[in-house]
Amino acid sequence: MRNKQKFFVCLMVALSSMSIKANSIVDGLGFGMPSYIQQTRSEGSFRIAGNGTAAKICVDPSDWKGVVRAANDLGDDVCKVSGLSAKVISTTSILPSSVIVGTIGKSKLIDRLVSEKKIDVSEIQGKWESFLIQTVDGNLVIAGSDKRGTIYGIYDVSEKIGVSPWYWWADVPVKKSEAIYVKSGRYIQPSPKVKYRGIFINDEEPSFGQWTRAKFGGFNSKMYSHMFELLLRLKANYLWPAMWSSAFNEDDPMNPVVADEYGIVMGTSHHEPMMRAHKEYTRRRKEVGPWNYIVNREGVDRFFQEGLERNKAYDNLITIGMRGDGDVAMGKGSDEENMATLDSVIKGQRELIHKIYGKDPAEVPQTWAIFTEVQRYYDKGFTVPDDVLLMFCDNNWGYIRRIGPAKEKERKGGMGLYYHIDMNGGPWNDRWINTTTIPKLREQFNLAYQTGIDDLWIVNVGDLKPKELPIDFIMRYAWNPDAIPANKVWDYMVNWAAGIFGERYAEEIADIVSKYSKYNLWRKPEVQATTVFSVVNHLEADRVISLWRDVATKAEALRDKIAPEAQDAYYQLVLYPAKASAGVAEIYLAAAKNNLYAEQGRVSANDYAGRVRELFEIDKKLGEYYNTSMANGKWKNMMKDVHLGYVKWSMPKKDSLPNLKEVVPEEFPKMGVAVEGCIKSWPGSDNKAILPTFDWLSNQSYYIDVFNRGNGSFRFKARANKSWVKLSQTKGTVEKDARIQVSIDWGKLPFGESEAMIEIVQKQVTVPVYVHVVKTELPKTQEPYWGNLANAEFSIPANQYNANIAGKNARWIVLPDLGRDEACMGIQPVTAPSAEPRNAPCLEYKVFLPEVGKTTVCLGILPTQDVYPQRGLRIAMGLDNNEPQIIDARKGFVDTFSEYNSKNLAKSKVLKPLPSRNRSIKLIATGQSRRNEVFDNLRWLDVEVEVLEPGMHTLKIFMIDPEIVLEKIVVNPDNKYPSYFGAPSVRHN
Question: What's this model's pTM, rounded to 2 decimal places?
Fold first, then answer.
């Protein structure tokens, strides 16, 4: 593992005036190389293309095949950009005015320049994947420290002249330029901060599998060569190939050959040891025998040996260990029995590695995945030799299960992370569309990186499409996480959009893409339900519909402004994910309104059923265009995942709609009345129709819906018995629905609590609606504060604090655009030691609490896992100067992998029992269908505080452990008016 402190010191060493070292996102894309390309000549610049000619590209034929191939790609890229042919010449002679490409120690061209002291490679020589770009004596030199270093240098030039890494996989158009110059200078790209960076093609049926069979004839080298190139252009180096229905090494024997020639390090997934695909076993199950090391060691070892012998000549990172047949837990034994078996497995595998490679296994790169139940084994003390890379995992939905343990910081093999932006399996599928925001990725990968998990990042990307954006970010971030702090995420988004579509609409596109992924993270499509968002409280369903429609409308409107050559890229990267996601969300929201309105007897319920069916057809057409017309059918079948109608975690057989209800109108028009905050309707309910309480401080407006239960139309009148009640209309004609907004004329209202009644009249039918109003003295303070006069529920966004007080070793910082709203609050550094409230970072919020007694406060935090179980996961809250309460922040934690049962807890060295969940607060929604911290992407922690006197108070939130991210505070959660988000936040003053 690399020593970060030493590296940071090295970065501060002064360089010569002619040398520019990559240490920021000057290029706006995260790798760190400054933008050295220009379209006009300047003193000492090198002309790649212009004035009707393009520079020759010289490469030593004895250099790596991958380098020679990439050099030819550069020639093609120059031609694509400038229209001028850049000839690639295999030579050991340095030609004047040429681009000289090569690897130190492998290229005579580069070695000659070094020996003649034309270039100084001391900063990159012997380093991992580093490169130098320098103008020298009228030439341009691209020199790599190793094979991939050179290739990355070549592709760095390609991207900067205008060829996106996504030119093939997302049909990003090339940016044309008649002239291409490199500014005079010396540009150094240091080694990546994360050593192995790659993707896992998984869950590839039906979409990816059907696509590659139709386009390439299978999972073969013709397809994989495009993938290898993408990875290299993204400066990635590692791949777990598709494995559901294919075997990388057997389906096309050229697959590993081509991977090695390109320069890709190959591996196999977390449950496919010793370079053997699971399909290789299932195809010869009878020959190998049971997948059981206890009863069939000889057969299993032979199977392992054949895999290593086949692949030993290639660049591999070998997965060791063993799970059950088909990515399940091993056997039916106890953990202790399985650990003993696993110990035998790994010893046997190491013996085979020694035998086949003919050297110490410590010299052969290996990784062990601490996945699902294997985490328990590790927690109980099971480990592997020090040279093996420990691969920690997330919870399958994007939250890492462990930070890097302190005891492993000096591990020779290092630590890595297996992370999901696509999931097929428990706790639920998350496959169809991108539901991961860049701020979330940055927060989680920063936590991994800062705690030493920096030797391998492998990301389950499903079908690769449509996960292009998060793939792009993770690979760039992995190169240098320090280059993109939380407050630079928006810059990355804008630069990503500008790099594909140009600067003119970059901010608009970044906004659309940021919002659709954020809204998807509120509620991923596969776990949508009609019972999530409230139809009657806080206008929640209407607000969510409006937000989704807004992002879809903006995406559609912008489409007409996008250049013709970028239309295909725009559809797949922006329009389809935004509009299709919006459609799915509205399907469930409209169905929720249909279900409620049908119960109330509204004839308009049928309109919402019609809207659901309309959106269903739009969804089909969007997918059909993607699969058949976009890019002239290039992506046929790629968007085949079923994404509507999930009833359990696994994919349904076909898309289907949520339950819809039809209302048969009564023969004649008939009035119905419903009020905000209640699912009942009148006439027909024994309960009184009561609007939520109005209070002077919050100055609310609530609605009364007057609707038709029959055919035709009717006239109604509305009247209030108090002059201070204001109605938006006092009469009207209703064919389906009419909405009356009720507000208060506070100037006419006396102090104290008041009552009023509104009557809704249709002929002989009168429905009384009751009004309760509070007008008391307003708080006398100039500070911004939160609260209300009615002691009702109110919400506080975490980033809108009154005071942010640094602690002894850490401080709270704003994490922009993270979470459901505009920002969250996190700790910097995330490696800070735990604190006690007296010396901890503290956030203060001024709140008005009008009543004495016990008050419930709910803290909404991101669902951080039990990342350091020996220590715990804690946060503290206090009111005024009272003793802060330390809260176990695992309250509500979903035990996806059944770790915390009594049997495991009794034997675990580190796990502690989970605190019981609060089942009485509807905001938390414990026990409700498809409602938990995983699906909601939020964990609620509830605590009671004692209010000793009414008035202004200071609510204080203290860091105890540094990994917790605070999103929201809800005070007085009201079970009478429950909602998904909580009451909308209203800040006073």
Answer: 0.96
